[in-house]
Amino acid sequence: MELLKQRILSEGSVVNDQVLKVDALLNHQVDPELIMEMGREFARRFREERITRVITVESSGISVAFATALELGVPMVFARRKKSVTTDSDAYCERVPSFTKGIVTDIMVSKKFLNADDRVLFVDDIIANGDAAQGLVRIIRTAGAHLAGMGVVLEKTFQAGGAAIREQGIRLETLVKISSLSDQTIRFED
Ligand code: G4P
Ligand code: NA
Ligand code: NA
């Protein structure tokens, strides 16, 4: 998405070699028109998969997942983060480390909103090391649902998360690939 690259260049900022600040676009403020454009693009790429639910993790994946679900005409479910471990027989739970915050959290999805009949599209804002993503993949597998694929807005290809997802045979579509953030410079993969 050329438009998205332009917006990242004009509104994003390099925090360090690993982290790109995009809170004007994805993580704090969102531009509804731009988010809808992303949703249309993911819907276009996965339309033939007969998706029954779009799933994401709160919070920053929600806007794009919503836009995608609206375009596909299906519900969107967001995994919730829990601060304390609560064993809940009515929910799927997984423990995940958080790359940016340096803490461990538990994510959970109620068994009411994910089941073995589902054909799931997992949508997220950023893939870095992929720890959060792997946690949600485990939840989808535990539920016995079919994971049709993953759509992520921004992939940092110099980190291992995207490659690890693809190695598992999961179809991962990303809108923008960033190959490096070194020297305070955003470099896109061509
Ligand atoms: P992930 O690749 O599956 O997202 O897992 P990882 O453990 O690598 O990243 C954990 C969190 O860090 C995610 O947000 C992810 O979006 C965020 N993150 C990773 N790299 C960057 C980056 O370069 N810039 C920014 N702004 N965020 C980054 P989260 O913990 O799920 O929080 P939330 O944003 O959804 O609330
Ligand atoms: Na995030
Ligand atoms: Na996210």
Automatic annotation (TrEMBL):
GO terms for biological process: purine ribonucleoside salvage; xanthine metabolic process; XMP salvage. Xanthine binds at L20, N27, K156. Pfam families: Pribosyltran. Keywords: Cytoplasm, Glycosyltransferase, Purine salvage, Transferase. It comes from the Bacteria. Its main location: cytoplasm. CDD domains: PRTases_typeI (cd06223). It is an enzyme of class 2 (transferase). Gene3D superfamilies: 3.40.50.2020. Coiled coil: none annotated. GO terms for cellular component: cytoplasm. Its EC number is 2.4.2.22. It catalyses: XMP + diphosphate = xanthine + 5-phospho-alpha-D-ribose 1-diphosphate. Pathway: Purine metabolism; XMP biosynthesis via salvage pathway; XMP from xanthine: step 1/1. NCBIfam families: PRK09219.1 (NF006671), XPRTase (TIGR01744). Homodimer. Belongs to the purine/pyrimidine phosphoribosyltransferase family. Xpt subfamily. Converts the preformed base xanthine, a product of nucleic acid breakdown, to xanthosine 5'-monophosphate (XMP), so it can be reused for RNA or DNA synthesis. This is Xanthine phosphoribosyltransferase. It comes from Paenibacillus swuensis.
